[in-house]
Write a sequence for this structure.
């Protein structure tokens, strides 16, 4: 609604787009992955929530962080156990601009960020440098990890699996008659991943059962459901937000242990 804000965000997106043209990409031979790289190189995740600070400053990264854990998903610090891995080796797959990974690092973990999008990776490195944090940053495709088995105590990923082409899932559904005009993949790309450019990354939806099927080789699989904002509930039911998101939330959080 603020004309100056709109102009600032537009300028940021244009600058990112220009930088993206000179950003190294990984040759995957997969059109979906090319779209994913295009999407995140030009539209860094969470950046549109920074409304006051100038991009590429510490205040900008901290503003994104405050919105993430103070407005968007207050449940995350507890559920994601950011403070529970001091002294451990943590790998994040698809770390975005480094917001979540920084929480592990601040709490004493040794962290590695592996991302398909070079633009994201560059911003995550910048985030860590401005905070005075240490981390390792690798530009790589997570479907062929370059690590030996049991290299990490924890592997963390948020908002990535539903973009990954080679996962077992069936997407079905209908929304506003859109299937009469476009494919299910196009619907998901347009409705779930909103962007300021024309990227149309692959987006999938999982039931708890299908999400659990991806982790059949793991032990003690636990699936939690979270992420619902107050405005998404009828006004008279907003007091039930904490209980409602455990039933109606649109994020599935899978916690699983793998034997060494």
């Amino acid at each position: 609604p603020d004309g100056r804000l709109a102009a600032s965000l537009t300028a940021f997106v244009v600058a990112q787009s220009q930088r993206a043209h000179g950003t190294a990409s990984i040759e995957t031979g997969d059109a979906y992955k090319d779209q994913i790289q295009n999407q995140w190189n030009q539209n860094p995740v969470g950046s549109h929530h920074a409304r006051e600070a100038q991009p590429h400053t510490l205040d900008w990264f901290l503003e994104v962080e405050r919105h993430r854990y103070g407005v968007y998903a207050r449940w995350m610090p507890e559920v994601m156990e950011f403070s529970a891995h001091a002294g451990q080796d943590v790998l994040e797959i698809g770390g975005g601009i480094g917001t979540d990974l920084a929480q592990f690092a601040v709490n004493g973990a040794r962290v590695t960020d592996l991302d398909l999008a070079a633009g994201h990776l560059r911003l995550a490195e910048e985030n860590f440098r401005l905070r005075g944090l240490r981390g390792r940053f690798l530009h790589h495709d997570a479907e062929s990890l370059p690590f030996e088995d049991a290299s990490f105590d924890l592997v963390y990923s948020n908002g990535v699996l539903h973009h990954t082409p080679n996962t077992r899932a069936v997407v079905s559904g209908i929304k506003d008659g859109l299937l009469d005009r476009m494919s299910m993949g196009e619907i998901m790309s347009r409705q779930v991943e909103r962007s300021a450019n024309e990227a149309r990354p692959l987006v999938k939806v999982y039931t708890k059962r299908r999400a659990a099927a991806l982790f059949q080789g793991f032990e003690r699989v636990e699936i939690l459901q979270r992420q619902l904002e107050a405005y998404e509930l009828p006004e008279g039911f907003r007091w039930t937000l904490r209980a409602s998101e455990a039933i109606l939330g649109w994020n599935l959080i899978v916690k699983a242990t793998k034997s060494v």
About this structure: The two ends are 53 Å apart (CA to CA). Residues 13 and 43 are 7 Å apart (CA to CA).
